[in-house]
Amino acid sequence: MSWYREYEDFSNSDRETFRDAANLLLSQNYLVYEREKDRRYYRFVERYAHIFEEYFLLSGWHLNHNKHLSVFQLYNRYGKNRYHFTLQETIFLFILRLLYDEKQKDLRLTREMVVTGEEIQEKYMALEIKNRLPARDDMEKILRLFSHFSILDLKRGQWKDPDAVYILYPSLLMVVDAESVERLADWIGTGEGKEAGDETINGDQTD
Questions:
Q1: Which of 128, 122, 120 is nearest to 89 (CA)?
Q2: Does the predicted TM-score (pTM) go above 0.85?
């Protein structure tokens, strides 16, 4: 219980930050350095990573630090408390990952990865997954969900508007890895997406 002895030496302020950071990780699964509202907690977890690792390990959680992406990810080693994305949510994740990869190739002066609502809609139609776009309210609900998991944030405009601008975070690369991209591309290429309902797709989930 060495982590607890170190925790006992924390100031009251640090104990509050520890509590808030731990609850954020349990709630949203990711802490992203590039995300302004996460940054303070990301730095704190990075500083005391060994304490957080031992603390979460007690209840079966593993804290993964992707230093290249500057992202902390918390996941349950026993597959508990996992959120399974619906078909529609998975399609939007796939679209955002495609847009992220495209933007990354053109990235020059700034590291900020931004996309518009119009770009998301155009990519959706280009993939010919459905004959029409989902309702704007449904799109807003999905994008807000992704924001909860520190995958993106609204930068400008209204959530459901085509001219809205969103910031994409590198946590997206961990939610939808290269293997998932290939699997989803194959799945969409077979035309199964046009026949499927609103079920979940195995493997596309977050803790």
A1: 120
A2: yes
